[in-house]
Amino acid sequence: MSPTAVPPSPVLSLPALNAAGEDAFVALLDGVYEHSPWIARRAFAARPAEGFASLAALKHALATVVREAALDEQLGLIRAHPELAGKAMIAKSLTAESTHEQRTAGLTACTPEEFARLQQLNADYNARFGWPFILAVRGPRGDGLSRQQIIDTFARRLNAHPDIERAECLRNIHRIAEIRLNDKFGVEPQLGNQVWDWAESLARFSDPGFAENGQLTVLYLTPAHRAVAAQLADWMRECGFDEVGIDAVGNVVGVYHGEDHGQPGEAPRLLTGSHYDTVRNGGKYDGRLGILVPMACVRELHRAGRRLKHGIEVVGFSEEEGQRYKATFLGSSALVGRFDPAWLDQADADGVVLRDLMRDAGLPATMDAIEALRRDPARYLGFVEVHIEQGPVLNELDLPLGIVTSINGSIRYVGEVRGLASHAGTTPMDRRRDAAAAVAELILYVEDRAGAVPEVVGTVGQLQVPNGSINVIPGRCRFSLDLRATTDAARDALDADVRARLAQICERRGLSFTLERTEAAAAAPSDAHWQSRWERAVNALGLPVHRMPSGAGHDAMKLHQAMPQAMLFQRGLNLGISHNPLEAISNDDTELCVRAFQALLDDL
Ligand SMILES: [Zn+2]
Q1: Between 337 and which of 374, 422, 424, 471 could a Cys-Cys bridge form, CB atoms 3.0 to 4.6 Å apart?
Q2: Rounded average pLDDT over 574-588
Q3: Which of 196, 219, 200, 201 is nearest to 209 (CA)?
Q4: How does residue 6 score in pLDDT terms, banded at 50, 70 and 90?
């Protein structure tokens, strides 16, 4: 054994930890949080009477101690960490755990250039923030980031706001602690690893123009898209699904029969799934997680030779993002009989008509074939969907999983305010008809109005002064408006207020406006029974239940039109960023997600 390796210690068990007194408890968790025994001590004081229900519960309790600690204590914890590839590493004065981690990441084998770059980054980072850069170098899969990934992350985070960066350091400390705890407890998140590896492997297929740059883009029915479908179908067969196929709109459908398959009065199936297309330069988990997690569950059932009372139907929806055609939710629309025949005549940006594209892909491209995909709700228990959160909420709360209460309804507009383009120097301030100033006023109103109640959000994401110039008062201002709410009533109230205010602003300023509604989607509240099934499943893992609305639309919104539905969210790393290559999930969170799905299946 090399002198720097972590000595093998006996595997710790939860009953042993739960039976320990305070000092023994703190000693058993020694080294999990660098030089900070106060965290274990407080977690001990706050432990539940019956002890920690699971390793996940222990991890959450420790993270909660840190989140509730005073700012100087949090900074003390951050400063207790060594610099990456820093002086302590060179002098071999790191803790055994840190030495092991920095070595596994290959930091002890840096080239002179990499080493110099890291020293410069360390110096710049310390000058900017006043604490050392913290990164869980074993990464989201637990098997180590590359030196290039480490350097890229370091450089990126150097530009963050200090408050955000402090929080990101703490989250990396929790990830480091999580991996150290796994080592202590001899735990390996094998189901999470499987899903993570599947997602990584799927990401090797990407459309031309993006693939060359290492970017992930999979638009409807491109060769990469069809390769992803074929790969999913292959894996489904390997997992032990009884029926696997690709349907008339490119959805990949796998069925694992229930115990009474083929008998009269066969029990209804559970329908689940999500989409495998991506946005341009998107992430690896948006959509795909919701296909791969139930696949892992079926694989485990098949391996154990188990049949459930109910069959499970997993659908990889071919299209959800609306990137190539103006046909968002194309895949799931077909299952609820809402595929719009006019979509077949649409052309993409290159003039490729959808009907021709489908035919070239070997799909029938007829409405008869598409209408045959419509599911009879009587044959289904309901629809559940797992998805990454695509937002910062779970990440901030140090929670791996969240329960969706409702998918927000939305209304979108494109608008234009018209005033008078006149000379910026000669027009006095009280004679102006400034279209952009009016829209600015509207934006501030939207921010105020939406911020005043918890269940709505409002955004002006596009702003344009056509033919604007530096010395001309804006005569026209175009803008977009995106309003969302957990209920249709809240959405409509926000909508009415915003429209009234726009009219008022234009009236007062002597301007005119147009407002064209481009989209309206009803809110899709989760079915109460299915939502509580997810809650029980998350509870069974020893985790607290956190309920939240989904700000983004999902396939479940479409299935909502035919059957009861409820969604489970998994935390995204990197501040929960999504529709972005930085989108990330950890193997441990994914393990919990698979286990929650298994618990839901056992609860049927
Ligand atoms: Zn998605």
Answers
A1: 374
A2: 92
A3: 219
A4: low
Q: What are 52-95's pLDDT values in tens digits?
A: 999 999 999 999 999 999 999 999 999 999 888 777 777 677 78
Give the helix, strand, coil percentages of the chain, each rounded to 5: 45, 15, 40
Which residues are within 5 Å of ligand 1 (an ion), measured at CB?
Answer: 286-287
Confirm if 312 and 302 have CB atoms less than 8 A apart.
no
Which residue in 336, 386, 403 sits closest to 554, CA to CA? 386
Question: 203 CA to middle of ligand 1, Å?
Answer: 15
Query: Does residue 470 register a pLDDT over 90?
Result: yes
pTM score: 0.90
Q: Using DSSP bridges, classify how beta strands 312-317 and 252-256 pair: parallel, antiparallel or unpaired.
A: antiparallel
Tell me the residue type at 297.
C
Measured in angstroms, how far is the CA atom of residue 6 from the centroid of ligand 1?
41
Residues 6+ apart with CB under 8 A from 110: 85, 118, 147
Rounded to 5 degrees, φ, ψ at 482 are -130, 115
End-to-end CA distance of the chain: 50
CA of 387 to the centre of ligand 1 (A): 7
The CA dihedral of 307, 312, 318, 320, to the nearest 10 degrees, is: -140
DSSP symbol at 6 = P
- Three-state SS for 563? coil
Count the neighbouring beta carbons within 10 Å of the beta carbon of residue 329.
Answer: 24
CA distance 432 to 332: 50
Tokens at residue 123, please? 């110096």
pLDDT confidence bin for 104, thresholds 50/70/90: confident
Q: Which residues of 385-404 are buried (b: 16+ CB within 10 A; e: fewer)?
A: bbbbbbbbbbbebbbbbbbb
Alpha-carbon separation of residue 565 from 258, 301, 407, 539 (angstroms): 20, 23, 10, 19
Name every residue whose Cβ is closer than 8 Å to that of residue 548 and which is 6 or more positions away in sequence.
389, 393, 394, 402, 403, 404, 405, 569
Find the 275 Cα to ligand 1 centroid distance in Å: 6
DSSP per residue, 326-376: S-TTHHHHHHTT---GGGGG-B-TT--BHHHHHHHTT----HHHHHTT---
Nearest residue to 257 (alpha-carbon basis) of 273, 239, 278, 241: 241
Query: 2 pLDDT exceeds 50?
Result: no
CA atoms within 13 A on the CB side of 140: 22
C-beta separation of 99 from 92 below 8 A: yes
Q: What is the largest CA-CA distance in the chain?
A: 85
The pLDDT tens digits of the residues spanning 295-347 come to 999 999 999 999 999 999 999 999 998 889 988 899 999 999 999 999 999 99
Which residue is associated with the tokens 């993570």? 196
- Cα 460 vs. chain centroid, distance in angstroms? 23
CA 566 to ligand 1 center in whole angstroms = 15
Task: Give residue 452 CA to ligand 1 midpoint distance, Å.
Answer: 28
**Cα dist. 322→18, 277, 443, 477, 570 in Å?**
51, 9, 26, 27, 23
pLDDT at 154 over 50: yes
